[in-house]
Design goal:
19 helices; single chain; alpha+beta; about 600 residues; 3 domains; about 20% strand; about 30% helix
Length: about 600
């Protein structure tokens, strides 16, 4: 019998040294595999430095979370002992000192698509009301969207809600019971896509947009939606549009984001979740704003329903958390949008006042300085307003040179930075004064201006066109203000076919307009100027009571000027031809006397 040690059969034929070497190598590799596997199990799904926060990964407000088997869109963790009534809304402060137009996407996961907090019941009650009152505005779909609607619906009712929040959503006999509202909805998608989207919109405090590849293979189109709280966005008017057409008002979207967005959508993988945050500042806490202009992209705005004053107390940071992911069967891209409203006072108390002020100023220092103007809307932009009531010329000799907010508040322009002003409870937007002299320096009062009557124009006034002396609001020259303002904002010179004109549905008191006309007339050859560097290219020349006279640099010149008396002649034409009765007038526009580069308008202050 051999004295050779007994070896494993697989090692038979090898020397002892070779056998021991292979055994040692196998033990080493097994140990490495064990350590690596154990370590990998500790890595949370989709974790990156920009991914879900520690609070989100571990539950909400310290709630425990138990891992469960994955859905087709990834793992969903059950929140143990979750209490929505005591859960504070997430605080998002996405302020940056310099604004750059980018996708700004970060990683997230399925657990953070839907977020619950103490506002849940009030919010879904609001949604149910708006769905009942405006069904076709907040719910909609097109042919071809049914598979995507069904897939999203059943992911929510069967895969996410009852697993993530079993205290709030419970399955029973084919129904999903909403314990909070007492409402039940079928787990299986209803045959009607409208009903399915209504159920989604009535039970969740998120808005949903479903996009599918365009039939022509070029980009993605909006094919279905359930949206109640989007800011100034009427999804029913966007249904069927491509992504680029939906975003056309955004300055430089086509140049910077159009192609990269289309490529990103086409490449987004199933199981990958992305999100981004935006911010704006609103002068009220309204969530339902589909019919309001909250971005000054087309120049159209309304003077109705503006607050009497703009103060810290009635101003809010509005932030949308926008998540997107792909459905595996239909291939649809789903946007999930959660809206947060934070009082500006809260933002300041949390220590973010200076960051917000810097972010406001930073809108005009990034890669799209036009964004400063885009956000300069009566509803969404921050204005530093006086807390006292606006004073007339007699009370304030500099009132005529002081711009107003679109809400009619006088704005004080100081050299201090916005960061300092926020400490005093005020918010600043930089506007450029045009340096016109005061009434006091002219030896005049508002009473004197009002008593002067209308400004006479020369019979050879170069800007008068045939047949424009009739009441323009009933003449063929009437076009809507949307077209005129769009021409201004795009920098295109308006044609004689549309200028001069009046807007037929833009009524406001005309008393202040004549006062301003007479003020400008008394300035004589003093230049009234509009600068390109003002971004908006529209300069406020005079404001009194409810009327403002504006000058637009429509050819994007470095600056354009006319004598103030020539501006007054154009404004007098508007006043004379756009009057409705003895107390009211309509807007709108005429070229300065002898200067087709400076478009003068009278608009509500």
């Amino acid at each position: 019998m051999s004295n050779r040690p007994t070896m494993l059969p697989i090692l038979d034929g090898l020397t002892c040294g070779e056998s021991y070497y292979l055994i040692a190598l196998a033990v080493f590799l097994t140990g490495c595999t064990f350590v690596f596997t154990k370590r990998c199990r500790k890595i949370p799904s989709f974790s990156t430095k920009n991914g879900p926060t520690a609070r989100e990964k571990g539950g909400i407000n310290g709630q425990n979370a138990n891992s469960t088997p994955s859905t087709f869109l990834g793992p969903v963790d059950t929140l143990v002992d979750f209490d929505w009534k005591t859960t504070e809304p997430l605080k998002n402060r996405p302020f940056k000192p310099k604004y750059h137009l980018t996708m700004a996407l970060e990683k997230t996961d399925a657990n953070n698509l839907i977020v619950m907090d103490k506002n849940y019941l009030n919010r879904v009650n609001l949604r149910q009301r708006y769905i009942a009152e405006y069904p076709t505005t907040v719910i909609g779909h097109l042919d071809g969207s049914r598979p995507a609607v069904k897939e999203l619906y059943e992911f929510l009712t069967d895969g996410l809600l009852p697993v993530r929040w079993p205290q709030m959503f419970q399955r029973s006999k084919g129904q999903l019971n909403n314990v909070i509202t007492g409402h039940s909805l079928p787990i299986s998608c209803p045959e009607s896509s409208t009903e399915a989207l209504t159920q989604i919109g009535s039970n969740l405090d998120e808005d949903f947009l479903i996009l599918l590849p365009s039939d022509d293979g070029d980009g993605y189109r909006l094919k279905a939606f359930a949206t109640c709280f989007l800011s100034g966005f009427d999804a029913s008017k966007k249904l069927g549009l491509k992504l680029r057409d939906i975003h056309w008002p955004v300055p430089k979207y086509m140049q910077i984001l159009n192609k990269s967005m289309d490529r990103y959508f086409a490449a987004l993988e199933v199981g990958k979740f992305k999100r981004r945050f935006n911010w704006s500042v609103m002068t009220n806490s309204e969530l339902f704003t589909p019919f309001e202009i909250t971005h000054f992209h087309d120049g159209k705005h309304t003077n109705a329903d503006h607050p009497a004053s703009v103060t810290v107390e009635n101003t809010y940071q509005r932030t949308e958390m926008q998540s997107l992911f792909r459905l595996p069967q239909s291939g649809a891209i789903v946007f999930v949008i959660k809206t947060y409203m934070y009082p500006i006072q809260e933002v300041k108390d949390d220590g973010y006042g200076e960051e917000l002020a810097a972010a406001i100023e930073g809108l005009q220092t990034g890669n799209v300085p036009e964004m400063f103007f885009y956000k300069s809307d009566p509803k969404s932009f921050i204005l530093r307003a006086t807390t006292s009531k606006a004073r007339s010329f007699d009370q304030d000799p500099m009132a005529h040179t002081r711009p107003r907010s679109p809400q009619g508040r006088k704005l004080r322009l100081d050299p201090q930075p916005a960061t300092a002003l926020l400490k005093h409870g005020e918010i600043l937007v930089h506007l450029r004064l045009h340096g016109l002299p005061s009434l006091e320096s002219l030896g005049l009062t508002r009473k004197d201006l009002k008593a002067m009557g209308r400004v006479a124009s020369s019979s050879s006034a170069a800007f008068y066109l045939p047949s424009t002396h009739s009441k323009c609001c009933h003449s063929p020259r009437v076009v809507d203000a949307h077209k005129i303002r769009s021409a201004l904002l795009s920098g295109k010179r308006a044609s004689a076919a549309t200028i001069p004109t009046c807007e037929d549905n833009y009524k406001f008191p005309k008393d202040g307009a004549q006062v301003c006309i007479n003020f400008l007339s008394n300035l004589g050859s003093k230049p009234c100027e509009s600068w390109l560097e003002a971004l908006r290219r529209i300069q406020q020349m005079c404001t009194d009571n409810d009327a403002s006279i504006m000058g637009a640099n429509i050819k994007n010149l470095a600056s354009v000027a006319s004598s103030c008396s020539d501006v007054a002649i154009a404004a007098q034409w508007i006043y004379d031809n756009c009057g409705i009765d003895t107390t009211n007038m309509n807007a709108w526009a005429h070229f300065a006397h002898g200067n087709g580069d400076l478009l003068i308008s009278i608009v509500p202050a």
